[in-house]
UniProtKB/TrEMBL annotation:
Binding site for heme: 459
SUPFAM superfamilies cross-referenced by the UniProt entry: Cytochrome P450
InterPro entries: Cyt_P450, Cyt_P450_CS, Cyt_P450_E_grp-IV, Cyt_P450_sf, Cytochrome_P450_monoxygenase
PROSITE patterns: CYTOCHROME_P450
Subcellular location, principal: membrane
Organism whose genome encodes this protein: Lentinula aciculospora
Keyword terms of this UniProt record: Heme, Iron, Membrane, Metal-binding, Monooxygenase, Oxidoreductase, Transmembrane, Transmembrane helix
Stated family: Belongs to the cytochrome P450 family.
Nuclease keyword on record: no
Official protein name in the record: Cytochrome P450
Cofactor field: heme
Entry's Gene Ontology cellular component terms: membrane
Subcellular location: Membrane
Amino acid sequence: MISHLLYPVLAFAVAAVYFFSTFVRHLVATHILLRHIPGPRPSSLIWGEEWLLYYSTPGIHYVRWHKKYGKVLRFTGAFGHQVLSITDPKAIKYILSDAIFDFPKPKGVRAWFKATIGEGILWVEGREAHERQRRTLAPALSQSSVRSLVPIFYDTSAKMASQWTKLIDNSHSDEAEIEVTKWAGRFALDTVGRAAFSYDFDCLSGGPHALAESMDGLTNNENKTSSFYMRALFWVFPSILSIGDKGEMIRKSKQELENIVLKMWKDAKVVGDVNSKNLMSVILRAEAKFAMHRMNENELVSQMRTTISAAFEPVSAIIAWTLYELSLDVRLQNELREEVTAAGSGDPSYDGLTSNLPLLDAILNEVLRLHPPILENHHEAADTISVPLSEPIAGTSEMCLVIPKGTILEIPVNVVQTDPNVWGPDAEIFRPARWLERKNRGIRHEREILAFSEGPRSCIGKTFAMCEVKALIVTLIRQFSFTCSHEIEPFQSFVIRPRVKGKGASSLPLIVRKI
């Protein structure tokens, strides 16, 4: 008779053998179906190209590979799993728009979202479930709602500018070196708290802040070897997200955010403000109007966590890269300052921000083009599926790509947005004037900017994000000038952040001078 103590061991062994055999069968089938797709030979038997990608300049190998192998290539991830990298425009349109629900997020990505923010709109899959959640959120992030939130964007911007003025005054000079990435993140948190939930996180007070530090710490240490192992393996073994110090950090950050979100939700129900246009009021109205279809508390908490997280990482990165690029070009700063001054002494309205500042638009478009917060748009084939192509796979005459079920594919945004056939021979150069030139010549290409994705699953908060960034830049450029005395490099955490070259965590110290 087998001892009761052996049953768990036996069950684990059977499960492990089953998983391993299934995994191997999938690898073999994928290799057979994709063997005609060109790509680099794996640089590591265990890690494939993951080590190379992780410890190199973000996106540099995608550029090199696509230049060599064409618009469709394959490379190897950890333990031999195959990844397709696609820049073909017809395939991108099919994947992101025409058949988006046939290409869900990979299991590892969904596990990350579930572990960090819950089962919100970034996690959910399937047309019906996604559209239900999107319908709930969309009214609060619509153009008309954002229009009413612009005064909050300026108010938060003024608070940050005031803190910077204090730092300069305390330096007993007319300038000070300010760590921009810290303030960009705190601005993003305070703005989404007030604008979306009528709740002041008070991150811009200048002192320590548990929420800001917890969210920043979750992804701002990606240079560690432990983070590499987690990033390389979660595509194949999503459960690794719950293991070790990183798993504990994920749980702590999620709990910190959940505690605040629950308090916000309970306070909102007591106040019962259903007349505002912010997200909290929209949810309260939905609760009252659609009792049969209301979200349960777990779903509500997940949506609120998702909104805060999505408004923190990408927005703070966009702000940091914008100020960095401005710091490198005094002439561009002066031109932008002149444009803002010419717009009037008051704060530009929503229409002023979106229509009357063409140079600011050009600068932000160029930042998004060269510094997309999310470097890769990842998906997974829900079933074996044929994808149309605009040109044959290199070395073949095939005008379609058959993707085996379960294959992970990624769209390298940086490659698409620096294609010299679209952007010219200076595609790698930061030159905002290109947008003004293109507008004057009536040039418009599809998928010019993929930083917010496109199609039914494009970023629902794009208008909100761009307006708050514009309000901040308008506020800061009126009061300060910026220079950078450090060599800055990009590094990949959850988003692409700037850091002083050779350092570990994100860092962007700029010399900020009062005008």
